[in-house]
Amino acid sequence: MQELVDRPMILAVKGHLQKPRVEVACKLAKHLKYPLIDQDEITSVLQTSEHFDEISFDIVLKIASMQLTELKLAVIISTPLSQDTHFDKLKHLEKSAGAILVIIQCLPKDGSSDYDIGGVSKLTVDTTKQFDVEDFVLKELDKVKKRIYRHLHALTFSNKPNIETRLQCKRCREVISGPSYQCILGCDEYIFDKACAELQVDLEQVRKNCPDYLTRREPEYLFPRELRQNCNICEYNGREFSDSCHDCLFQTNLKATDAMIATLICMSAAFCWHEPFLTTMTSIL
């Protein structure tokens, strides 16, 4: 029985050569026990149709949609994925079904991807080598399945879109029309629709564009080690100097500014020779 997951996966195994593509798809389906939908099988029945490629792909999506939305099962789709419109339809299915789309491209090691799939996880299988399904699942696919999301700022979830401001998702650049995530600090660089926010792949890139004033930094003042002074409390408790301890900072400032204080006192004394002042200065020095 197939394992149920909180967000089903769409494994689209693509490649222009049918034999290696189907081999990879079949091995993955047997190992993961996911339903396999082969577009070539449907296409062969529709050869007499003028638009058999488009029709067969739409049929594939209909079957996959039922598995994803009604049964919450992951699916494997074997498809040439030769048209950009087909890829766009896969992305739409991913979003509507709340799934995770992964493109597994089957091509020689020296081959290159035929188009950019920004925002979607992409794995590559070298068709010049024997496909080891267990090794592939363990080393490549499991990394995607873990979906570990890390964010420097806490995100707040909103079920309803803000129609007045017409917020734009920072990943897909489309106006958000449904549930969304936004930085709780109000950072304009962290606004995503629900589907984009729950993808691990692009957050690292967006994080690089975070405004400087929201980036965690080291303290502006870093005292040289020889000037750092423990306060009595920290010393009693066996703790080292801490720039978060006010008493440690006070003692360190005193040591760092002793020379400056003495200089100021001498300069003041040069202009004032009254006895009370000299008595006070003598007691301090």
From TrEMBL:
It comes from the Eukaryota. PANTHER family: DC1 DOMAIN-CONTAINING PROTEIN, OS07G0160300 PROTEIN. This is Uncharacterized protein LOC110409755 isoform X1. It comes from Herrania umbratica. The gene is LOC110409755.
